Amino acid sequence: MTEHLDDILRHARPLEPIELQLLDAQGCVLVEDVTVPTALPPFDNSSMDGYAVRAVDVADTTEEYPAVLTVVGDIAAGSAELPTVGPGEAARIMTGAPIPPGAEAVVPVEWTDGGTGGGPATGMAAAAHAPEGATGEVRVHRAAEPGAHIRRRGSDVSVGELALTAGTILGPAQIGLLAAIGRGTVRVRPRPRVVVLSTGSELVPPGEALGPGRIYDSNSFALTAAARDAGAIAYRVGAVADDAATLRSTIEDQLIRADIVVTSGGVSVGAYDVVKEALSEFEGGEEDGSGGGRVEFRKLAMQPGKPQGFGCIGRDRTPLLALPGNPVSSYVSFELFVRPAIRSLMGIEPVERETVRATCPQGIGSSPKGRRQFLRGRYTDGTVTPVGGAGSHLVKALAQANALIVVDEDSTSVEPGGEVTVVLLD
């Protein structure tokens, strides 16, 4: 099993970096340190709607004896021309607006009469409806210390400061920071493109009626969702019937948009397991346009997921991982082999899921000797409980699990209260 993963990762090298617009870079991995070219905020600005004042003019004010100041103008966010605030004066100011010359503090509008001559204001009238609010007088009922409600230039980040480091995965907050410091593009490793397809003539798309002997195709949906969860751009292809020529041509058509191809089903020893048949023929060359390639099929000492296939095909030697068809087998195989490959292409470390040691209060009754078993489990606060049985078709148990319980090859059971290794899936 370890050798199989090592083989995959040898061929899943990080993708070449590209320059992307900010929103296109969401979910990608940054490949450069980003320093701040402009202080944030770029100027002293107000954190409140209110009045910009000199602190000395409101130092002794109370509700009983308010300070009466002359309003010398309005300052909205984005204002370029600013009035100077002198002794006994105030400027009405909005959140985010620059602090005018002479002002040392901002008094929230709720600490004033809002220029009405009455009691404490609850807000400001819209400037379009009450332009006189920028003139006249305002009564201030509470004192404000120097610097009150002012966001100083560079108080968030200063010029030259390291904003983001290489290796950061760009989420909404990181995209917002890049935009705030003026970056329109950023250099990243692109999200890998993963093509997912299921094989089997018995498969029917969800939403259609089931005929005799048919089942719904769940694997392609689960694996596509898992690939997206791992950070990839995933494309789901409709289920392919058990015909080697059709499967081969479908895969060849998909290689143009794939950094990884993932198939499920058709890798065991049955007469209709066509994945082996189709992929063993991927040995063409430049003369037939296929680019050739080789997929090797193996039997790993694990349960579920014993039959596995891996190889690199086509002109670009695109990695192809052929997973078993039972739903639990394919999902466990994805977590152990495909997800690390996706993260390797993205340049993310570590590539594998986090593992912890946990107590298993009820134990594990039996485990096949010589195989590493992966059971579904619920992990909470250092303990793990098996969910469902060991059957590789138990989809409900998989949906209830948040971890995989690992039983080593040399163990055939786990005593109640024994310790096990747990792969965390959340």
Shape: elongated
Largest sheet: 6 strands, mixed
Rounded mean pLDDT score? 90
Report the strand count. 26
Q: What is the helix fraction of residues, given as a range? A: 10-25%
Computed Rg: 32 Å
> How far do the termini sit from each other?
23 Å
SS strand fraction: 25-35%
| Low-pLDDT residue spans | 284-289
What do these coordinates show?
This protein is α+β, with helices and mostly antiparallel strands. It is 17% helix and 29% strand. It is built from seven helices and 26 strands. It has a six-stranded mixed sheet with strand order 16-13-17-21-20-18, sandwiched between helices. Helix 1 packs across helix 6 and helix 3 packs parallel to helix 6. The longest helix has 20 residues.
